[in-house]
UniProtKB/TrEMBL annotation:
Coiled-coil annotated spans: none
Name assigned to this protein: Acyl-CoA reductase
Keyword NADP (UniProt): yes
Gene Ontology annotations of biological process type: bioluminescence
Gene Ontology molecular function terms on file: acyl-CoA dehydrogenase activity
Record flagged with keyword NADP: yes
Length: 347
């Protein structure tokens, strides 16, 4: 109980330091914005604020620990290797928090795209919980792990499967998110959907990359809701992607809906749209669409809108980038994985 309270209080204090814009976080975010132009400072703070508000609350942290009876006794603690992806800011934070609260130790391989802020977070946590320095290590290569949680592309995952084949592991592949619309969405719904599409320049697996719309759908209200994100073109990387995709579609004389900052293209067979573009597909029947999406569930992170899909996480408009501790990537229950790991013996 003492250990659990210490960890929860340390995370709550981290949440306060995020809200207060702690100077160490300010400095490392500033450095990151030059290191990786995709990670603009405003976006990084947006990610941190979402973590503080959705994960770092006493209710959420306590409920998660109590659900799995964490932390485990010291004699049952293992070392979990974590490999962070680098597509959006702090995308591996959820994995870290769950391992930290479980009582296990961690070896963490950071993404080269996001190497500065997470060490600052550990430094701030260690001010409240000195055990962090001994239990959580940032490494160049995983060497002393007894279990693994790793996120990467489909190609990287094949390497992970081979390399970690003798360890208990949660290995994640490429996924994306979609939205199902019926034309009755309110202005607030569409404003939320615009965030689901554009936050972090659409680079996350929880970003919507494809829209399912009824025949004859009027895109004008959605485009109007997306207009505030025209500022995405101020980011040179986003602008280069948009310009490249526009030139390709013009050369191919594709039938697209073109704005000055995003392209909408009818592509029935694809889920993953490139940066600066959104795919869409018309449907005749919601029930038939549901059946089709169930078949695609291994590629989906979450479905946005009023129509849940069996076997896939469901999000309301504007909620995709604010997951809580129980919103597990790929639907894999990390708590059960970590509990089972504590029960295993090491040969």
């Amino acid at each position: 109980m003492v250990k659990k309270n210490r960890m929860i209080n340390a995370l709550l204090e981290l949440g306060k330091k995020i809200q207060d814009r702690h100077p160490l976080l300010e400095a490392t975010i500033h450095r990151t914005s030059f290191h990786n132009p995709w990670f603009e400072k405003s976006n990084y703070w947006k990610a941190l604020d979402a973590l503080a508000e959705s994960m770092l609350t006493r209710e959420e942290l306590t409920k998660w620990c109590d659900t799995y009876q964490f932390p485990v006794p010291g004699e049952h603690g293992k070392t979990v290797g974590l490999i962070f992806a680098g597509n959006i800011p702090l995308v591996g934070f959820h994995d870290f928090v769950t391992v930290y609260l479980s009582g296990h130790a961690a070896e963490i391989k950071l993404s080269s795209k996001d190497p500065y802020v997470f060490p600052a977070i550990l430094a701030l946590l260690s001010e409240q919980d000195s055990d962090v320095e001994h239990r959580i290590k940032i490494v160049e290569k995983l060497e002393n792990h007894e279990g693994v949680i790793a996120t990467g592309s489909n190609n990287t995952n094949r390497y992970f499967e081979k390399y970690f084949e003798s360890y208990p592991a949660l290995l994640r592949k490429n996924r994306t998110s979609v939205a199902v619309l019926d034309g009755s969405e309110s202005a607030d719904d569409l404003n939320g959907l615009a965030h689901d599409i554009f936050d972090y320049f659409g680079l996350g697996c929880r970003n919507v990359t494809k829209l399912y719309v009824p025949e004859g759908y009027d895109f004008d209200p959605l485009i109007q809701a997306m207009n505030p994100f025209a500022a995405s073109m101020n980011n040179i990387k986003y602008k280069n992607n948009y310009d490249y995709n526009l030139s390709i579609e013009l050369l191919n004389r594709s039938d697209i809906i073109s704005t000055e900052f995003v392209l909408l293209k009818h592509v029935p067979e694809e889920l993953f749209s490139p940066v600066g573009m959104i795919f869409y597909e018309a449907y005749d029947s919601v029930s038939q669409l549901h059946t089709a999406l169930v078949q695609l569930r291994e590629q989906l992170q979450t479905v946005v809108g009023k129509y849940p899909v069996a076997g896939v996480s469901h999000s309301g408009f504007g909620e995709t980038q604010r997951p809580g501790l129980f919103d597990y990537p790929d639907g894999e229950d990390i708590g059960h994985f970590l509990f089972d790991l504590s029960c295993k013996t090491v040969s």
